[in-house]
Amino acid sequence: MTKLKRVEVSYRDPSIRIKDFEEVCLGYTEEEARKEAARCIQCKNPHCISGCPVAIDIPGFIKKIADGNFKESYEILSTYTSLPAVCGRVCPQEDQCEKYCIMGRKGDPLAIGKLERFAADYALENNIEILKKIEKNGKKVAVVGSGPAGITCAGELAKLGYEVSLFEALHKVGGVLTYGIPEFRLPKEKIVAREIANLEKLGVEIKKNVLIGRTYTIDDLFDQGYEAVFIGSGAGSPVFMGIPGENLNGVFSANEFLTRANLMEAYKKASDTPIFLGKEVLVVGGGNVAMDAARTAKRFGSNVKVIYRRTKDELPARVEEVENALEEGIEFLFLANPLEILGDDHGWVKEVRAIKMELGQEDADGRKRPVPLPGSEFTFKTDMIILALGTNPNPLISQTTADLKVDEKKRIIADDFGITNKDGVFAGGDCVSGSATVILAMGAGKKAAQAIDEYLKK
Ligand SMILES: Cc1cc2nc3c(=O)[nH]c(=O)nc-3n(C[C@H](O)[C@H](O)[C@H](O)COP(=O)(O)OP(=O)(O)OC[C@H]3O[C@@H](n4cnc5c(N)ncnc54)[C@H](O)[C@@H]3O)c2cc1C
Fold first, then answer.
1. Which of 66, 121, 321, 349 is the residue whose CA sits 20 to 30 A from 29?
2. How far is residue 84's CA from residue 141's CA, in Å, rounded to a whole number?
3. Mean pLDDT, rounded, of the chain
4. What pLDDT, in 10s, does the model give residues 151-205?
């Protein structure tokens, strides 16, 4: 095998995996990981690091894998990230670190994500813990939301000696990692819960079932003695299309469908969680959320189509998830957009009227704008529609926090370090950027922790 080709990772057979919710990608064996890691040429000026929002020493952790020092590889990773097993599974590496890997110029870039997953899984399987002694400084900080932004901010502050309380509205921690991304991509007990458990080992106090904005306001938290507050409350309010028929029975947001499947565990055979399942399911959208909804519906036994306004090349979902979806028999209707949802006499979804699209001029963001092709309307049968069109932040916190500035989409306005207009209040992750990625939320949590530290040292 030439050094230009990446060591292939194994996946479960599509015909078997669509019948259960077990993890699809099997990850590298030790031998495979060492072989892949040995392809890294240890660049003097590694561009991969600048492609990583938390600037992991990528050549450093990969070298340790190549040498067979898996524990030391994990030690390096854990200096930069609290969720390496999660990121190794869900980061869009092709647009980040791997995009800048020099090996990619002539062959395949290093499988940086799969190697990160390998080192992190090795540490979890072998109960390796990297705990340093922490000197407490007696100052209290509140973190709102236990998604990647909140987890990272809380972990970084705890390492700096702060007494951190993490407030979470739900009965389980993890944010989208727990209620959004399905088990077959990110196992909850085996991976998410165990990486989050490291937070408690750092001394972070986790307070579940506390809805900030109702149970307490942000201002109440200051009255309780917290000297700074980080808001990492995500973007959980789904966007709808605004087309006729969206209120029919059988139309769901991807958020609701995935929350029932994941957080409420409808995917488990013994579960009695109610979940609506159509025979012919249409998923609208082309991002990771759309792929997760489509592949989840497939595992429940539905025939699934995804309708997307642009072409396969523009799909915003991770390439690996698109390939997995295709292998699993998800059908794609590219360059098409729903116009109307038609119902039967009892108010249930029956059909969709859609129109074909073509790509026109580039937008300000450089993407070609899809435009409808006049006279190309078509209708097809469907009995369930899942909308995966993006999300905006829930306005509860901004509505109940005096003077906190938000934009027209209710995103909290904060600078690159999470500093908001309100003294002592910091924010980051999807509640600031709108729906983005795990690693960007982590990067925002990390920067905000540094800013909070500077603020409280003044
Ligand atoms: C289905 C799905 C699949 C995705 N797939 C990928 C992927 O493959 N790769 C990738 O990089 N990204 C993916 N993303 C995006 C990624 O998960 C998010 O960008 C990331 O989780 C944002 O992190 P966050 O911490 O800002 O918010 P979240 O993860 O949304 O966490 C926010 C937390 O705050 C809590 N909260 C909200 N309001 C309050 C309140 N008032 N009081 C207390 N707690 C509150 C919420 O319950 C939640 O637990 C996906 C998203 C979804 C929905």
1. 321
2. 25
3. 95
4. 999 999 999 999 999 999 999 999 999 999 999 999 999 999 999 998 999 999 9
Q: Is the CB of 211 under 6 A from ligand 1?
A: yes
CB 146 within 8 A of CB 193: no
Residue 289 Cβ inside 6 Å of ligand 1? The answer reads yes
Q: What is the CA radius of gyration of the chain?
A: 23
The angle formed by the CA atoms of residues 454, 156 and 223, to the nearest 5 degrees, is 65
Q: Give the closest residue (by CA) to ligand 1 atom 41.
A: 212
Q: Is the CB of 397 under 6 A from ligand 1?
A: yes
The number of beta carbons lying within 10 Å of the beta carbon of residue 248 is: 17
Residues 240-286 pLDDT 10s: 999 999 999 999 999 999 999 999 989 988 889 989 999 999 999 99
CA of 30 to the centre of ligand 1 (A): 32
Structure tokens at 95: 């647009």
Please give the Cα distance from 345 to 249 (Å, whole number).
Answer: 11
DSSP structure string for 253-268: EHHHHHHHHTTT-TTS
d(CA 142, CA 410): 21
According to DSSP, residue 103 is labeled: G
Structure confidence at residue 1 (pLDDT): 54
